[in-house]
Design brief:
Elements lengths: L1 H11 L1 H10 L1 H7 L7 H21 L7 H17 L24 E3 L9 E2 L2 H18 L10 E7 L2 E8 L2 E7 L5 E3 L2 H4 L19 E9 L2 H13 L8 H9 L4 H7 L2 E11 L11 H11 L8 E3 L2 H15 L6 E8 L2 H7 L9 E5 L4 E13 L5 E12 L2 E7 L3 H7 L6 E7 L3 E7 L1 H6 L23 E4 L5 E4 L6 H12 L11 H9 L14 H5 L6 H13 L5 H7 L7 H10 L3 H5 L3 H6 L4 H13 L1 H18 L3
Parallel strand pairs: 2-11
Antiparallel strand pairs: 1-6, 3-9, 3-10, 4-5, 4-7, 7-8, 10-11, 12-13, 12-15, 13-14, 15-16, 17-18
Helix pairs in contact: 2-3, 4-5, 16-17, 20-21
The structure holds 2-(butylsulfanyl)adenosine.
The site of 2-(butylsulfanyl)adenosine has 15 residues, from strand 3, strand 8 and strand 11.
């Protein structure tokens, strides 16, 4: 009775609840937080989950999930926080440096000088541009002509975790992680077992500074990385993805005995502060002098470095280092180029995050991992469906990749790529990035997300809903095809192909404009392009009078394209560039080809009966015939003197 009463009261009060929602839309979130889809709830779940994995990884050295699965959790959280800024918090795991978050187990210390990062480059051209910038800035800022042309040191970029070694009067007192760049955790206990790291600097006769912050890298040798992963595999534990992750995770373990077992190493390459400055002892005026001084103090200096006076020598040194890379016992991920002269370094200075006097040339990885957001099916000009994997964008080989083709449905099913999968991208034949394989192990590990479901082949065309037919392509690969010649996707693809560089090459007419023209009903086939008026083009989204006139002129100019280009653009079966050129040589117009008989076509060199039959059948089709006639008329008009 009382329950019924309260329900009735609530119903009567419904307008009141609704008005609250209008006035305070934020309540909406709270009210619906039991719906399971609520972003605030999901964000909290993700934060808790990430925190648990951080503990397992950093403190217990026993991760439960792969790095990529962990990254996927972080990415989901980052995306949710970006979409709901009100739910972002300062202590969210997305705000922290990935593998070097402050840990109260260690004592935190400020760095005397900030630990900067390096700007990255990936190409030889970038390196030359860096050299140009350095020369220009030195010339502009140097007050006297005393500054020499820059000389550079080229050092291996050790792929580990940055650290700062603090020596007071020669005694190692702290080993700080990079942290947020302004201060880090003191992991000195975890470095005691590193035999090459001196606890006391050797006085080489020049005296030792009161305090010096020496910058270097903690790293793991390949052999130890493999040994540890073998042990983990035998114990059924998840493996470390690479030596860098292992080094970064190991240096912050809470168990020094386990750290000693894992075998960390150190290289040094720079200085933060030195007090008093003179203690570095003249004549230390260059990076090279500094490295040699480190060696004299007994520190583990990077094994090999180069000096270069010219951009040519600079590029050659980087190439030599990359040759050497395969022979090194530890990982490097690039070269660090530094202006050698300290006075010049000072003139060049730094920006917020990195010095202007140094740059990292990064080797591009042979593969990258990313997540498949969705698998879409693209309908091409012949109606064949091409599956495409839409990816979380990743930088790879100098460009950003957000989608890759899966070629055909057979390939899709063979590789068993699923939406939500983590995949490895590599270059096929050194040119086109493609999915090399699915990381099956990530399917099980990504506990937060639902397991990806196998891709289900559709029965109908995703564009026009026509029933699909199963066929084999020329290479005998199974494919699905939409048999509807008027399918809007096919129409668009045929016209875009006709206009493309490989065919009549209409500048400024790409897929998106063709899409708009077809969707607005302004063109139905390639010939229709020539009937467009500048006024019609100007009605398209993103076009004004001028751009419309420009596109109209480009279309008109394509009427004078070489005949073979038109023949390729028509998309006749079996007619690619070489046959199109043969046909164009023997028939001087579209009309001549259209009225030629099949036997005459078959006799042409390199054509043959099968192709001739296909060409003749295509030309016999009434709608193709009509379109060819219209194109021919426009071509003839363009030749007529005005
Ligand atoms: S110099 C202020 N030299 O790479 C410039 N860094 O991606 C300090 N690294 O933070 C860096 N090898 O942790 C320098 N030979 C080398 C290096 C090196 C590895 C690391 C370092 C730096 C990161 C930047």
């Amino acid at each position: 009775m009382s329950l019924w009463f309260s329900i009735r009261a609530s119903i009567r009060a419904l307008p009141f609840w609704l008005s609250l929602l209008v006035l305070f839309p934020a309540c909406f979130d709270t009210l619906f937080c039991f719906a399971g889809e609520n972003p605030a709830v999901r964000i909290e779940q993700l934060r808790a989950e990430i925190k648990r994995h951080d503990e397992l990884y950093y403190k217990k050295a026993s991760p439960e999930i792969s790095d990529t699965a962990y990254d996927a959790l972080k990415r989901e959280l980052r995306e949710l926080e970006a979409a709901h800024p009100a739910l972002a918090t300062a202590d969210s795991p997305t705000r922290r440096v990935d593998d070097d978050a402050p840990d109260t187990f260690f004592r935190h210390h400020p760095h005397r000088a900030p630990m900067l990062s390096l700007d990255n480059t990936y190409t030889e051209a970038d390196i030359r541009a860096f050299d140009q910038r350095v020369r220009k800035q030195l010339a502009a800022r140097a007050t006297s002509a005393a500054f020499p042309a820059p000389r550079y040191t080229i050092e291996p970029k050790i792929d580990g975790a940055g650290i700062s070694l603090v020596y007071e009067r020669g005694k190692l007192v702290r080993v700080l992680t990079r942290g947020d760049g302004s201060g880090g955790d003191d992991i000195i206990a975890n470095t005691r077992a590193i035999s090459e790291l001196p606890q006391q600097l050797r006085d080489d006769g020049g005296g030792l500074p009161e305090l010096v912050e020496i910058r270097g890298e903690i790293y793991m040798a390949f052999a130890d990385f493999e040994r540890i992963n073998e042990q983990r595999a035998a114990a059924g534990q998840p493996l470390f993805a690479n030596p860098r992750n292992l080094a970064a995770g190991t240096m912050k373990l809470h168990d020094s005995a386990e750290v000693a077992n894992r075998a960390l190493h150190v290289f040094v390459y720079g200085v933060g502060v030195c007090e008093p400055g003179a203690a570095m002892r003249a004549p230390i005026t260059t990076q090279r002098d500094l490295l040699e001084r480190f060696r004299a103090w007994g520190l583990p200096v990077i094994e090999k470095y180069w000096l270069a006076d010219t951009p040519v020598a600079l590029v050659a040194a980087i190439a030599e280092l990359s040759e050497l890379r395969a022979k090194l016992a530890y990982p490097i991920d690039g070269a660090v180029v530094k202006v050698d002269d300290f006075a010049s370094q000072q003139i060049l200075g730094s920006h917020a995050t990195a010095p202007r006097w140094a740059i990292a040339y990064k080797y591009t990885p042979k593969s990258v991992e990313t997540r498949v957001r969705a698998i879409t099916l693209q309908v091409g000009r012949t109606g064949a469906l091409t599956p495409v994997a839409e990816l979380d964008p990743v930088a790879f080989a100098g460009s950003k990749i957000s989608r890759v083709t899966l070629h055909n449905t057979q390939e899709l099913l063979r590789k068993d790529v699923r939406a939500g999968d983590v995949v490895v991208i590599e270059k096929a034949g050194d040119i086109i990035p493609e999915i090399a394989r699915v990381k099956i192990e990530a399917r099980a590990a990504g506990s937060a997300a639902p397991a990806p479901a196998p891709f289900a082949l559709p029965e109908n065309c995703p564009e026009c809903a026509t029933s699909l037919v199963a066929e084999n392509d020329a290479a005998n690969h199974a494919l699905l095809r939409c048999p509807n010649h008027d399918c809007p996707a096919q129409v668009k693809a045929r016209i875009a192909y006709f206009a493309s560089k490989a065919c009549v090459n209409i500048a400024g007419l790409g897929d998106s404009t063709v899409g708009k023209l077809v969707s607005q009903g302004l063109v139905r086939d390639a010939a229709g392009l020539y009937d467009l008026t500048p006024r019609q083009i100007s009605t398209l989204d993103g076009f004004g009078e001028k751009s419309a006139a420009r596109l109209h002129a480009a279309i008109a100019a394509s009427r004078r394209a070489e005949l073979w280009r038109v023949l390729v653009g028509l998309g006749m079966p079996d007619v690619a560039t070489s046959r199109a050129k043969t046909l164009a040589k023997h028939f001087d117009s579209l009309a001549a080809l259209a009225s030629a008989d099949e036997a005459a076509i078959a006799r042409l060199p390199g054509v043959g009966k099968k192709a001739a039959a296909n060409i003749a059948a295509w030309l016999a089709d009434p709608s193709n015939r009509a379109m060819v006639g219209r194109i021919e008329k426009h071509r003839a008009d363009s030749r007529r003197p005005r």
